[in-house]
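Q: A reviewer asked whether we had any structural model of the full assembly, not just the individual parts. We don't, so I'm hoping you can provide one. Inputs are below.
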Amino acid sequence: MELPIYLDYNATTPTDPRVVEAMLPYFTEIYGNAASRNHSFGWNAEKAVSSARDMLGSLIGTSGKEIVFTSGATESNNIAILGVAEFHRDKGRHIISSPIEHKAVIDPYHYLEQQGYDVTFLDVNQHGCISLEQLEQAIRPDTILVSLMGGNNEIGTVNPLEEIGRITRKHGVLFHTDATQAYGKIPLDVERMNIDLLSMSAHKMYGPKGIGALYVRRKKPRVRLSPIVFGGGHERGMRSGTLNVTGIVGFGKAAELCAEEMASEAERLIGLRQRLYEKLTVELDYVFLNGHPTDRLPNNLNLSFGYVEGESLIMGIGDIAVSSGSACTSASLEPSYVLRSLGVGDDLAHSSIRFGFGRFTTVEEIDYTAEQVSSAVKRLREMSPLYEMVLEGIDLSTVQWASH
Amino acid sequence: MAYSEKVVDHYSAPRNVGSFMKNDDAVGTGLVGAPECGDVMKLQIKVENDQIVDAKFKTFGCGSAIASSSLATEWVKGKTLDEAMTIRNTEIVEELSLPPVKIHCSVLAEDAIKAAIADYKSRSAASAD
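A: Here is a predicted structure for the entire assembly that you could use as a starting point for your response.
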């Protein structure tokens, strides 16, 4: 086993060597511009793009014709939300979403709100689940879009996309899902789930960084949106700019590998997740699971270790790369807005650690992680005034804290 | 974020972790911060003839908070109460090379010292009555 251990697969993944191998010829041999229509360099590039497109589409039950390449899921989300909002501005200016969406979804709403749009953020329960009844009730005559993510990047909770799609289709409202974490990890089908727009990213699924895509439905209904990047009319006019052929080839190969291995890999990852959870909860008390116990991404485990601050815990497990919802690990000095939306107290938000597993994670690494985390938590609790108070039987909520 | 060597040192081998009996008249306890803010420090001093003869701490917080309080216990030991009152957070910042986002940790440590001294004084005043 080599150190350090990477357990931050929800942040990004290593590029699979098979993906890198597939990409290499497209740097130096097949380097044509896919938009060059009058020579073989262009044709060969276009051929590779087209086959990657089909592969990406097949993973969500569609053809390549509905795939628009972008620079990543942030851009895909921006095009979907801003593009639909702009195109349908005369039809309506109401969008429905949730407070635990990724910032690449939330931040465009803040922009739209300044432009006079209205965004309804559905409530989420303690597991990060929305209520389908509330969703249906929130739909108004001027609602143009519902955007709800596939799987949450922090807490792993998976949305009931099929049920959401049934409601949006019934009411004739477009349905966008940010599937950055879900794509390639869990089965998705835009027909069965009535998804109209779907964002995806290569680097979360063992492809390269800097390439993503947006699925845009072509019929029943044909989704119309205004572009946010202009200049050449590439990608059905929805996203101008020379295609990143090398990245696209890598993305396609990554999708092919995920398609082949999805079922067995999900099962393996759930096993690793369960193993880590069990080992930690046997060793430690006051460990709280964040997110849904079962309806979650196979590769995500988010835990709060009560009375231990997340950044200090990360410092104590220096050989293991994880992330935390603690304010001390973010630039904003605010704890995770996702955990806050779930009603997780700020104290436990500060104590949260996200473990993300993936294709190259081994049982040995999980066991080592469990040992390291357990001993670091125990050590930090020995110096935690909160843990001491709890052991003395003091209810921390009754303490008059001197906030700063 | 990379930590300074001194922060890592205090984090890995914190000085004076522990607790004194709170109801000991020679002990002053300062409890500052809040769990919601991600840091709580408990700093205790043991006083004989206005001199701090021993100190202990427990901290819930990031590595810099742990290091700041660990350093604070080292610094107050052997000082008179008046001398300990003059310890400034900026000195802690300097000693530990804390980056700007961690300055609040040093402020908290200064507050903890002051709170412990105030607690000791109010308790000894009460017991003198």
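A: Points you may want to mention in the reply: Chain A has a mean pLDDT of 96. The domain at 17-257 of chain A is CATH 3.40.640.10 (Aspartate Aminotransferase; domain 2).
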